[in-house]
Amino acid sequence: CSHDKRAGVKIQTRYTVLPAKQVPAYLKDTILERCDLTNTEQFLVSGYSVVVNLNGTGDSVAPNRVREYIINEMVKHKWGSSLSGIPMPSPEQALRDPRVAIVQVDGYLPAGARAGQRFDVQVSALPESNTTSLAGGDLFQTDLRVFGADPSDPGGAVNNFAQAEGPLFVNPAYALTSGAVDNPSAKQSLRFGV
Question: Nearest-CA neighbor of 127 among 148, 149, 99, 159?
Answer without folding.
Answer: 149
